[in-house]
Design a protein that fits this description.
By secondary structure, the chain is an alpha/beta fold. The chain contains seven helices and nine strands. The strands form two sheets. The protein has a seven-stranded mixed sheet, with helices on both faces. Strands 1-2 form a two-stranded antiparallel sheet. Helix 5 links the parallel strand 4 and strand 5. The relative contact order is 0.15.
């Protein structure tokens, strides 16, 4: 799941997390998402990192039309929904406990003609990777999925399995703790990593990672 810290009593932000729904406008569509903090916790609310990455993709700096995309730790599904609306073929993944909730948001927010382009699928990092063809995706997306240090090795293993030499990873996150820097250091041990965007209003960074030393300009 998309795992991030949460503190009770955080004012307006806490009220937003506990709201049963959240509404956004991306790719000329209004997206209304169910949220369910009480039942599913952090996997069932929209975090700023997802919103920032959606806005980044919407600028068109990356052409997603007919590209193969996989989202890790999808949570509410906002990022995968927006990628589909922007023309991609998207595999939207999370752990088993979140799939029914995730599927309901995806089905409710995609026009019927686009639904076949989005597939919701179970993926627990580091497990059952054989269910996903190695190197089959043009882009891997993740928003606020770097938090629990005990998942770092499995996340890295999953990224390595899914990546070809051409695959572009885009990770959107808030750097909160020293362990977040530790994951970036681990990532740099396997990929070339560059910061491509920073939203100062939300304190969210977007990192691009690729195998080898390529530094393609977006």
């Amino acid at each position: 799941m998309a795992l991030v810290p949460y503190e009770e009593g955080a004012g307006w932000g806490a009220r937003q997390l506990h709201s049963p729904s959240a509404t956004y406008r991306f790719a000329s569509h209004t997206i209304r998402l169910r949220q369910d903090w009480r039942r599913l916790g952090v996997a069932a609310v929209v975090w700023d990192a997802a919103v920032v990455l959606c806005a980044y993709l919407e600028t068109g700096v990356i052409d997603l039309r007919d590209r193969s995309v996989i989202e890790l730790g999808a949570g509410t599904g906002l990022l995968g929904i927006v990628a589909t609306l922007l023309g991609a073929r998207v595999t939207i993944t999370d752990r088993a406990a979140a799939l029914e909730f995730l599927e309901s948001n995806v089905q409710a927010n995609l026009p019927s003609e686009l639904r076949p382009r989005a597939v919701v699928k179970e993926l627990t990092w580091g497990k059952d990777l054989g269910n996903f063809p190695p190197g089959a995706f043009d882009f891997i997306l993740g928003a606020d999925i770097v938090y629990l240090e005990e998942t770092f090795a499995e996340l890295l293993q999953t990224l390595e399995h899914l990546c070809s030499e051409q695959t572009v990873i885009l990770l959107s996150c808030r750097i909160r703790y020293e362990r977040d820097h530790k994951f970036l250091k681990m990532l740099r041990g396997h990929f070339s990593v560059y910061e491509v965007h920073y939203d100062s209003s939300k304190d969210v960074h977007i990192y691009k990672a690729q195998r080898g030393s390529r530094k393609d300009d977006f």
